[in-house]
Amino acid sequence: MIRNLLRNGRVEKNLKLKELAAQADIDQTLLSRFEKGSRMPTEKQLNVLGEILGLDMRAARVEWMADKLVGMVQYHPEAMEALRVAESRVEYLTSKKVLDSPSLSEGLALKLEKLDALKAQWAARPVLSPSQLHRMHAFFDVEYTYESNRIEGNTLSLQETALVVNEGLTIGGKSMREHLEVINHSEAIAFVRGIVERKEDLGRRSLMEIHRLILKEVDTANAGRYRQVPVRISGSETELPQPYMLDKLMEDYFEYYEVHRLRLHPVILAAEMHERLVSIHPFIDGNGRTARLVMNLILLRNGYTRANIKGNTESRMHYYRALQSIQEDNNPEPFYQLVTDESLRSIQAHLELI
Known about the structure:
Blueprint: H1 2-12, H2 17-24, H3 28-36, H4 43-53, H5 57-73, H6 79-94, H7 106-123, H8 130-151, H9 158-167, H10 176-197, H11 204-215, H12 246-260, H13 266-280, H14 287-301, H15 313-329, H16 333-353
């Protein structure tokens, strides 16, 4: 129990409660309650105390999490069932199984063949002039910004989004946050395009910069930073990792990319990196927009056009259900199908435009 670790650590350091309270800047009465087990320290308080007492922080976090879990479920008759469900979700996120290559159904493989044939047509297109290229980017960028923000609840219409992006106008009756979300997303698309043009790969630096742009002036303190607090997804039962797990999970995330970027079909890799990011949920906000930009960075990097998942109610629910089929049932097929279908629609639209 964490109370025993804290008390034994203090005794071994020959510290009185008053002395430890002064060093940790934690109320002495609260420290006493930690040691008695009547109160639990926050993760930040645990880290401070662990550093002062020289605790094995991995062991301390395990005990801390175990105590929290017991406190949550000890009086519930469904406790064991809930723990089994949580165990399967944590195993998916932390085990080496997440480095395995996924298998594809015959139907999905045929779709990918069709997509690759269209990709070849796209690659063989006539060279576009700078003005043609600019107009094409402007058309698809505005639509993508509109749909991606719409998924997250932004109420600006497609026309209003275009006016904000292209004319710098302010739309009456709409919040400053909604305007910033449009401007930020447009800048993030330009950043992603720059990565592709420079032939750079996805990495921690590029991910953090994408997220920084998404939250710039919306939540500057958390822009481009992993979250420091636990979060839940509204309306979802999916358990999200605790903050102390994020560094390791994100190391695994980038390891997966390095292992599979030359092994998986690029569309499947894009879908995987999208889903894995939202399942880890490393940021306090902006995870969905960032994950979709990461997906499209990978698609563009490999010669495809952007997959633009629609934000209307039916499409949004289909998108959420496809993600949940992986997170809850470990079935990636619906999400692979969704990303492939959107990639097909996108490349067909691009070919028709030129």
